[in-house]
Amino acid sequence: MEEQTNSGAVNPVVQPKPAEQPAAHGTSLWLKVIAVLYALSLAAAFVVISKGDAIRKKSPKDMDLAKLSGLSQSKKNAVAIVEIYGAISQGNSSRSWDHGSQQIAKRIHDVADRKEVKAIVLDINTPGGSVGAVQEIYSAIKRAKAETKKPFIARFGDVSASGGYYAASACDLIVAEPGTITGSIGVIFSVSNFEGLMKKVGYKNEAIKSGKFKDIGSPTREMTPEERKLLQAMIDDSYEQFVAAVSEGRKMPVEEVKKLADGRIYTGKQAKENGLVDRLGDLQDALDAAGELGGIGMNPRVLKESDPFGQFLSLVDSRLQPFGAKAMSEAMQTSPSLEYRWYGR
Predict the structure, then answer these.
(1) CB count, 10 Å around CB of 263?
(2) Is 251 considered catalytic here?
(3) What is the DSSP letter of 208?
(4) If pLDDT is split at 50, 70 and 90, which confidence band does 44 have?
C-alpha cells in the first residue's frame, strides 16, 4: 500500500514485520523411535494384507487341491535353532530381547511347543556362567524333552565350557568342532581381597552384621578358616550336582566322570575320545543329525529365531545407554558369585 502526503508525494507504507517464531526444538530421540516403530508396523501390515489379497485372488482352478492335501511333511516340518552365546546369567531385566537365562528358557519352551518343529539344535558358544542361570536352561531342556519327546542336539562353537557343557549334557547328542574348547567341568567361587590396598589409601570398612557369616566374601578383609570351610562345602555340593548331570546325560558312571571333571579343558577331538562329545562336525552336521533324529531326514528346513522388532528394540536400548556403561558396570562388579564358568575367556 502507498500513502499520499499533502505535497502529493507518495510514500510507501511500511508493514510491521511479523514476530519471529522461536526456533523449533530438534525432535527428541524417543519421538524418532516412535516414528520408526510406527513405520515398521505399517510396513508389516502392508505385507500381511498383500499376501492375503494374493491368496484370495487365486481361484480354485489355480489351486491344486490334491497337492495341497498331499503336501510333503518334510517341506513343512523343520529343525529349530536356539542360540546360547556369551556368559550365561539371569540378566538384569525381563525384556524379551535380552539374552538372560529366563529368555533362553522361554525360547526353548516356545520352539519345542511348535508342531512343525521336530528337533531343536542348541547353538552354544559360551564359557559358562552363574550356577542358577545355567541350571535354569538345563531344566528347561529336560522339561521340554519330557513334555514333547523331541530330540535336542547341542552344537559347540568356539567355546562350550563349564556351564555351557552342563546345559549340553541334557541333550541327546553333542556335536563339536575338532578345535572347540570344552570341558572345564567344575565350579568356582571367586573372592577379591583389597585389604592391603585399602590400608595404603587409608580406607577402612566397618560391617555391622547380624551373624558372623553375614559378610562372607567381603573384599575388604581376609577370609576366616570357618568361612573357607563353609564355602568349600557349598562348592563341593554344586560340583556333585554338575557331575550327576554329566553322568546322567552321558550315561557314564560318576567315578568315570570325576576323572575328567577336575576343571581341565579339552579340544573337541579330545572330548570325543573321552566320551564327552558324540560327533565332530559343524553346524550343518548338527542340523543333519537333528533332522535324522527328528524323522525328517538330512538337510532339513531350519527355523532360526528372527525377531526384527526385538532386534530393533535391542539396538535402540544399547544406543540409549551411555557408551561403555554396561561393560564398565560388569567390570566393576566385585560381589562374589557361584559359577560354572571357565575363566580363560
Answers:
(1) 14
(2) no
(3) -
(4) low
